[in-house]
Amino acid sequence: MNYKHLQYFWAVARMGGVVKASEHLHVTPQTVSGQIQLLEDAVGRPLFRKKGRKLELTDTGELVYSYARDIFHLGSELEELLRQPRGVQRPVELRVGIVDAVPKLVAGQLMQPAMAGPQPFRVICREGKIESLLADLSVHRLDLVLSDRPLPPALSVNAYTHRLGGSQVGFYASQALAATFEQPFPALLEGAPLLSPGSESAMGLRLRQWLGKQKLRPRVVGEFDDSAMVKALGMQGLGVFLAPRVLDESVRRQYDATCLGEASDLIEEFHVITVERRITHPGVVAITEAARQGLFADWQR
């Protein structure tokens, strides 16, 4: 494969068109189009298709683009490394995938040991659905995936789950919303506005089971995969929201919220998924040890 052709393709994909790419590369649009055609001939499939006046990537184009992004990202890193004075040690990268259902406050505390420990790492985070993150893990684009569930058995990924710990779940509300409830917890949830975790998330499934067991029917005003969005809406008084009790002080302070009650039998768990059966990557070791000895030390089983 001619990497000059790949560079022209990468520029067009990033900038959304041949003209903008040609301006960036300081060549004519005809030159860019010719290089793209040569790359498509080499690949044997089209990489772009027209959509109105714009170009969009085909499925093959998406695949090629994902690899081109990594190739040129590594090239930029190499240039940066070679420009550094001799003797200056560049931080080792730790590439982390975070499942979108994992609370941002938990993820932040778990990343802290890797970024501020005796051997600081340059942490690169990607957030998304567990399926796409595990796909990146399987081809070593990620060193670990931080998840709210173990490795799903339905996914054929050669990886291993390492449990970090868990926490009982608290139900929180803004001060104004909390003042409107007259019943004690958990009865106050009957008919109350609820900002629920996504229905396909691990906590979303557990919450529905717990509510059914308690015979409670809150008014679900929305379901959200993004835990930060849930808390942002909760801070505005739009509904009751959930958070791990290990974050109680941070949730109260950051979102000006009050804890309505704790569900001792509703547990939110956290896991690290890696391709290593026995963790050896020093960054992953720092995260797992700090989680088990610190954040989740009081709740281990």
SSE diagram, text form:
Blueprint: H1 3-15, H2 18-25, H3 29-43, E1 48-51, E2 54-57, H4 59-83, E3 93-99, H5 104-116, E4 122-128, H6 130-138, E5 144-147, E6 160-174, H7 175-178, E7 193-197, H8 202-214, E8 219-224, H9 227-235, E9 241-244, H10 248-255, E10 257-274, H11 282-295
Parallel strand pairs: 3-4, 3-5, 7-8
Antiparallel strand pairs: 1-2, 5-10, 6-9, 6-10
Give start-end ranges of low-pLDDT stretches: none
**Secondary-structure element order, N to C:** HHHEEHEHEHEEHEHEHEHEH
Alpha carbon gap, first and last residue: 52 Å
User: According to CATH, what is the class of the largest domain?
Assistant: Alpha Beta
Average pLDDT across residues?
A: 86
- The level of helicity is 40-55%
CATH topology description of the largest domain: D-Maltodextrin-Binding Protein, domain 2
- Structural category is alpha/beta
**How is the largest sheet built, in terms of strand order?**
4-3-5-10-6-9
Describe the main β-sheet briefly.
6 strands, mixed
Rg computed from alpha carbons, rounded to a whole number of angstroms: 24 Å
**Morphology:** globular
Number of strands: 10
Query: How many domains, as an integer?
Result: 2
Please indicate the percent range of residues in DSSP E strands (runs of 2 or more).
15-25%
CATH architecture of the largest domain: 3-Layer(aba) Sandwich
Total DSSP helices:
11
